[in-house]
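Budget justification aside, the reviewers requested a transparent look at the raw inputs and outputs of the sequence design task funded under Objective 1. We therefore reproduce one unedited record. The lines immediately below are the structure tokens for a 257-residue chain.
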């Protein structure tokens, strides 16, 4: 046998060995997939999942709003002093109304240049505008009107973002979760009675994301305040705080004996 024949023979053997090796790998992984599929199906056939839903509704216990001052002028030093003086009075007034320092937070402070445009000279600096805002938390809703009146009396010309919320919603989530688990277990007990199956341990728990639903306010959850128009006359305004509802769904998976 010449050298050329030996090379062809070795190439054939290498091709056969490689092919057999690849076939063995494919067979191995195929059996693994089939085994895992059967195992999963077997486990699922020996399990049952029940769900429960818990809902907790509560009135908000905190109000947040933004108070601010926008001051414009030609001299930045003058408008800065004016802005700071007014904001200091507002903050002092908030504290006098019982708002704690931890519930007063500076949200914005900015200085912007103001320009005019002329055909002859183009863009010309005309002055400056200072904007300063604070976020305020109000825990006693009956003081909302007093806060607004005090702020506007001391120069606040930005009043917005009044929102009502629950400061510590985790307690409500915990209650909703407890109710959902209780309902799911009651469903499981009902299935046992109606089907005669026997349930083992809980082998899986799934909880969905909680959700907030804002309901309409009621007579008990409304706040009256005094809006202060330019002429100084107080006009009663009604603010509805509404309600917040937290919903949690829990799925419990039991092993069937």
């Amino acid at each position: 046998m010449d050298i050329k024949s030996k090379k062809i023979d070795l190439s054939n053997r290498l091709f056969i060995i490689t092919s057999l090796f690849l076939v063995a790998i494919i067979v191995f992984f195929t059996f693994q997939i089939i085994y895992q599929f059967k195992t999963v199906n077997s486990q699922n056939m020996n399990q049952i999942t029940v769900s429960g839903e818990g809902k907790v509704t509560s009135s908000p216990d905190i109000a947040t709003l933004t108070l601010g001052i926008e001051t414009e002028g030609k001299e930045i030093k003058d408008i800065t002093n004016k802005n700071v003086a007014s904001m200091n009075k507002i903050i002092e007034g908030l504290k006098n109304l019982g708002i704690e320092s931890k519930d007063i937070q500076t949200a914005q402070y900015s200085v912007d240049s103001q320009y005019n445009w002329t055909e002859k000279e183009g863009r010309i600096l005309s002055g400056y505008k200072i904007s300063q805002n604070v976020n305020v938390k109000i825990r006693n809703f009956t003081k909302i009107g007093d806060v607004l009146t005090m702020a506007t009396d001391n120069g606040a010309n930005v009043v917005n973002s009044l929102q009502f919320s629950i400061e510590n919603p985790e307690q409500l989530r915990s209650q909703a979760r407890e109710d959902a688990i209780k309902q799911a277990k009651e469903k499981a007990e009902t299935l046992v009675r109606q089907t005669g199956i026997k349930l083992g341990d809980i082998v899986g728990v799934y909880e969905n994301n909680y959700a907030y639903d804002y309901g309409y306010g009621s007579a008990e959850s409304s706040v009256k305040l005094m809006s202060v128009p330019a002429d100084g006359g107080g006009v009663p305004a009604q603010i509805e705080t509404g309600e917040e509802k937290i919903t949690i769904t829990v799925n419990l998976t039991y092993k069937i004996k």
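The beta strands are 47-58, 62-73, 104-118, 122-138, 158-165, 199-207, 211-215, 222-227, 235-240, 243-256. The domain at 49-60+168-257 is CATH 3.30.110.170 (Translation Initiation Factor IF3). Computational costs for records of this kind are itemized in the attached budget.
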